[in-house]
Amino acid sequence: MVRGAWYVALLGTLSVPRAPAQTVAELRQRVQALEARHRTAAAAANRADSLTTGATDTIRVGMLTVVAAQPIEKPVRRGVELAWPAVDSLYGDAAGELKRWTLVVWDPNQGRVPRLDPPKLLITVNVNWTAPVAIDPVDVSRRVMSGSAQALHADLEGWRTTPFHRWLEPAPAADEQRLISEAYVELVTLPTHAAQECFSGVLERCRTVLGAAPSNDPRSRWPTPDDRRALVQRIALEFPYVIRTREPLLHSCLNADQDCATLLGSIAPEWLPELVTQQTRNTLIRHAVRLGGRRGYQRLLQSADLPLGVAVADAAGLPVDSVVASWRRAVLAARPDVVTTSRFEGWLAVLWGVVFTTFALASTRWHRV
Amino acid sequence: MFKVVFLTQWKWSRTAVLAGVFAAFALPILSVQQAGVFAGPTRELPGHARRLLDTVQTWGIAYPLLALVLGVLVAVTAWAADHRGRHVYALALPVPRWHYVLLRFAAGGALLLAPLAALGVGALLASASVTLPPGLQAYPVALTVRFGLALLVAYAVIFSISAGTPRTAAIVLSAIAFLVAVEVLAAAVHAPIDPLQFLGSRVLSGPFGIFTGRWMLIDV
Amino acid sequence: MSNAIETRGLVYRAGKSFEIRDLALNVPAGSMYGFLGPNGAGKTTTIRLLLGLLRPVSGAITVLDRRIPREAPRVLQRTGYVPESPHLYSTLTVAEAIAFHHAFYPGWDQGWADELLAMFGLVRDRRLARLSKGEMGKLMMLLALAQRPELLVLDEPTDGLDPVVRRDVLSALLEYVAQHNATVFISSHLVHELERICDWVGVMDRGRLVAELPMHSFKSGIKRIRLSDPPALPGDTPFVLLNREPAEGSVETWVVRGWQPPMAQYFEGVGASVREVVDLDLEEGFVELLRTFRVNPD
């Protein structure tokens, strides 16, 4: 089927006459012609697939091959079209692996799964047949992105054992923006001096906060006396049973940093919380992958068992400080919109007020006194 | 003229306006009070900034809601008495219609200044009473400005509908009924359209865009 | 004499069932013009057109030498209006309603407003919603008079009022008119009331003006005549024959308009003899006029 499409495309390519000396415009025109022929060929191949699989429709966008039950083909196609750019931009060349897979979108209420050769991956989509829009294409796109991530990682062994969760799922641009905005809020609200210093531009502190510092000792993430005191208070609040037997140290810790250090040293590292959430750490990894271009994700996977700082530097192909500095700039730029009204918003609201007031002033009430 | 129009409108709307003044003054103060951020040892606790933001964000929904309710109430009460008299008195007064409408609009707008000022004062007091963690800032003026703009839009929209004839209202209601009918029909034939959702997104990004966003007295 | 109110070819439609057609009113300045008509004749609609509260389909309206509806606010400044049903804001007190009204009228006479308030026995602090119908009628008349208008437009001002209140209201009105020579346009279906106070009368029915003439002409010009041997076809009469009904034998009763005693010669010429000429009062004349109009609207 896929072969069929390529065959038609190849024929198309061969049928386009070659000119010995072509201008850029001519070349562009030729590319467009080839693309058009490719689309025609892909559509023909899809139709052929549909005939062979019965009540299903095959949708190919980029490297994604998705089979959908025919009644929901249109929104699924739209969803796949939305998903592919996000998948491609995150995984780059690694997304090529996806062409071996078939993602099957099916409604469990229908209970019918198309018979396909493996490897295939089922993507469950609940279809609300009574709603005006039976399936939300955006929902489909999210599930396709998630399915792509699963398919891509199914063959990769050992990724779950890496020190951090590197299974990155593609996300719509708006979600990516939201994640990085939340990273901003987290950085601002973290109760540590390290985070404040990171915010102020001390890159070393940023690495500490993100867990990308050279030291693997979790205690190093709380570098100042205030940080350590805050950490002890946090543990006392969240996991009181952990330090119940160390009450004297807990009290003296408020005044003596040495006691705080002793107390933290006596706690098993796994009880020491991360400074930032995994979500914020993921924003750093995503950022490194994007900095690394189309092979960024592949390089990240190759460094899967290395410390985070090394892995992101490998993925980006840059020194870790450059990656962290770039991430920090992106985070600061993603500051959420506060309540402040922009000049445009303000004038727009005033304009609406004037428009509606004008409507009111124009009311005559002539007709129904 | 404005004085007597204002006084009549005050008489009709005073309950709503006074309640609005109280609510607008109390909202910002309650929001920071609930976050437990007044001077005291709590602000030293870890996670305090996050809790403060979360609490302020939870209260944030109340500001646009209050603006909407106040705008609607003042706009509706501005015309209620004229509707009862079928506008005969208003039309028999020796001023052009637009002049009378403008007087009513200005009187309602002036009344809405009271809750707006109350919000400003409340927000300033609340901001002054809290020691903010580093990285966080208070936006009492910005919040007040946004609240004022939201009041203006809500008031103007409902005022213009209310000032119109029953025919205008009938047209608006018919349009809504038509959209609902299309929605039902679309559901019946599984058509991939959702007119109400479409309208909602257009309205929210249009006149009511000012009601969206983060309504937070304290933010990053 | 110039006209305080004048309409030409006035047309207005409200729905499919009601229409005011080709209305030509002439209300002389300084007159008390009674606007008569049965319920639903179009009196209130006409008044609202005159004041610019409704927009006509076509035709011209001139009130106090200004065009309506274009110059309605200027006219309303010089016009006192008492509508058919109470239109004031019922949540206000009497004093607040007066203050509100006062603010819109530059010629407002607060002294006289206070006098009228005392004369009518209205309580300042009472809410309008709690006023009786008579008190509300008095208040509306107070508001209309205290603005010192050149024209008073009164739409059934005494309808539903008890005789005492009616007398109070009308006496205040007459006193004002006597002092200021104002024009009064008063609509009513209470014919006797207008008969006593008006010097001009206009009769309206089904959206059209049936007659408009001085009150004395109206009262003296409509007669019921008993005739012996009347002609089968009246031919060219010097009066307007409104109605004819057979009595006993060869006797008939005719109702005519525009009667003058020398017109008796007409009957001699056609072989009939006049047995009796009876004056009709305004109400009888009004009824006969309407009956004729409804039989032959053109």
Explain this structure.
By secondary structure, chain A is mainly α. Chain A has helices spanning 2-15, 24-53, 73-91, 137-154, 173-189, 193-200, 203-210, 225-238, 247-253, 257-265, 278-291, 296-302, 308-316, 320-333, 343-361, and strands spanning 56-61, 64-69, 102-106, 120-124. In chain A, strands 1-2-3-4 form a four-stranded mixed β-sheet. The model of chain A is unreliable at 1-6, 8-20 and 158-164 (pLDDT under 50). With 220 residues, chain B is mainly alpha-helical. Chain B has one domain (2-165, 210-219). In chain B, 75% of the residues lie in helices and 2% in strands. Chain B contains eight helices and two strands, in the order H-H-H-H-H-E-H-H-H-E. With 298 residues, chain C is of the alpha/beta class. Chain C folds into two domains: 3-88 and 133-206, Rossmann fold (3-Layer(aba) Sandwich), CATH 3.40.50.300; 220-295, 2-Layer Sandwich (Alpha-Beta Plaits), CATH 3.30.70. Chain C is built from ten helices and 15 strands. In chain C, the strands form three sheets. A six-stranded mixed β-sheet of chain C has the order 7-8-9-4-10-11, with helices on both faces. In chain C, strands 1, 2, 3, 5 and 6 form a five-stranded antiparallel β-sheet that branches. In chain C, strand 13 (240-246) and strand 14 form a beta hairpin. In chain C, helix 4 (110-120) packs antiparallel against helix 5 (133-146) and helix 5 runs parallel beside helix 6. The chains are: A mainly alpha (369), B mainly alpha (220), C alpha/beta (298). At the A-B interface, helix 5, helix 8 and helix 15 of A face helix 2, helix 5, helix 6 and helix 7 of B.
Key attributes of the depicted protein:
heterotrimer; B: about 220 residues; mainly alpha; two-stranded antiparallel ribbon; 8 helices; about 75% helix; flat; C: about 300 residues; alpha/beta; Rossmann fold; Alpha-Beta Plaits; 2 domains; six-stranded mixed beta sheet; about 30% strand
Q: What does the secondary structure layout of this molecule look like, with pairings?
A:
The complex is a heterotrimer of chains A (about 375), B (about 220) and C (about 300).
Chain A: H1 2-15, H2 24-53, E1 56-61, E2 64-69, H3 73-91, E3 102-106, E4 120-124, H4 137-154, H5 173-189, H6 193-200, H7 203-210, H8 225-238, H9 247-253, H10 257-265, H11 278-291, H12 296-302, H13 308-316, H14 320-333, H15 343-361
Parallel strand pairs in A: 2-3, 3-4
Antiparallel strand pairs in A: 1-2
Helix pairs in contact in A: 1-2, 3-4, 6-7, 7-14, 8-10, 9-10, 11-12, 11-13, 11-14, 12-13, 13-14
Chain B: H1 2-34, H2 48-60, H3 62-84, H4 88-92, H5 97-128, E1 137-138, H6 140-163, H7 166-188, H8 195-205, E2 218-219
Helix pairs in contact in B: 1-2, 1-3, 1-5, 3-5, 3-6, 5-6
Chain C: E1 3-14, E2 18-23, E3 26-28, E4 32-36, H1 43-50, E5 58-63, E6 66-68, H2 72-77, E7 79-82, H3 94-104, H4 110-120, H5 133-146, E8 151-155, H6 163-180, E9 183-188, H7 191-197, E10 200-205, E11 208-214, H8 215-221, E12 222-228, E13 240-246, E14 251-257, H9 264-269, E15 273-279, H10 282-295
Parallel strand pairs in C: 4-9, 4-10, 7-8, 8-9
Antiparallel strand pairs in C: 1-2, 1-3, 1-5, 5-6, 10-11, 12-14, 12-15, 13-14
